[in-house]
Design brief:
This protein has helices at about 25-30, 30-40, 55-75, 80-100, 110-130, 130-155, 165-185, 200-225, and strands at about 160, 165. The longest helix has 27 residues, at about 200-225. It is an all-alpha fold and about 230 residues long. The chain is built from 8 helices and 2 strands, in the order H-H-H-H-H-H-E-E-H-H. The protein has a two-stranded antiparallel sheet.
Length: about 230
């Protein structure tokens, strides 16, 4: 092995000292992101003229999250850490930019350029200084949640539950419990059991993959088709 079997120490599951997968449960559940990415990518490969750069980039980044997460929790090559962090920051960046557009704060015409520039800068910072990657991920994640709620509440279409349209309610309804379980199941957390087959970080992988798929198939798809008017799904 490469001698880097300490990458997932904060994710509770015990690190195996031999075998292909350092953290089998966390590695296998990471495949959910690959499935989500492929499902998001498939429609963009068809003849749908409404396919946008943003949708393709988002699907590829979700796929990248899966590849990076499998590498990070599995064989752990030397490049596993940046491969894990960079696409996560990229996915969150796409969500932030789309939600900013839904608020009408900037024009979608320049989104591709802005996305490429910010993705390049954030990727460089993440690779050069991993702490920056963690900071950016936390910042973008917080902004994504807040902007999603604010943009959704300003939307004029679709029935609402607790002030939110159904797509946003589904996204947040999966995200918040999954994030809470991930926090509780971190190393040193109250329900962390390093030797258990039930790893809450693995549950987080499944929930987060579902969230990214839901956001891409509801909010992003509707935004690309209808501008800021997000229909109920």
């Amino acid at each position: 092995m490469t001698g880097v079997r300490d990458l997932g120490l904060g994710d509770c599951e015990a690190i195996a000292q031999s075998g292909l997968l350092a953290q089998p449960v966390n590695a296998i559940t990471s495949l959910a992101f690959i499935v989500a990415g492929l499902l998001l990518l498939a429609p963009t490969l068809g003849r749908d003229r409404r396919t946008s750069f943003t949708k393709v980039a988002y699907a590829l980044l979700v796929l990248g999250v899966g590849v990076g997460s499998v590498a990070y929790h599995g064989p752990q090559p030397q490049w596993a850490a940046p491969a894990h962090d960079v696409p996560i920051v990229g996915v969150l960046l796409v969500i932030v930019l789309v939600e900013v557009d839904r608020l009408g704060l900037r024009t979608r015409r320049s989104r591709s350029v802005v996305l490429c520039v910010l993705l390049a800068v954030s990727s460089w910072l993440t690779i050069v200084t991993p702490r920056w990657g963690q900071l950016l991920a936390g910042l973008f994640a917080s902004a994504a949640v807040v902007l999603t709620v604010v943009a959704d509440r300003r939307s004029v279409s679709g029935p609402r539950v607790l002030g939110l349209t159904r797509p946003a309610k589904r996204v947040l309804g999966v995200l918040l419990p999954a994030a809470a379980l991930n926090i509780l199941g971190r190393t040193g957390g109250p329900v962390c059991d390093p030797d258990s087959l039930l790893q809450l970080h693995g549950v987080w992988h499944l929930g987060a993959a579902l969230v990214l798929w839901l956001w891409g198939t509801t909010i992003l798809r509707a935004e690309a088709r209808e501008g800021t008017d997000v229909r109920s799904a």
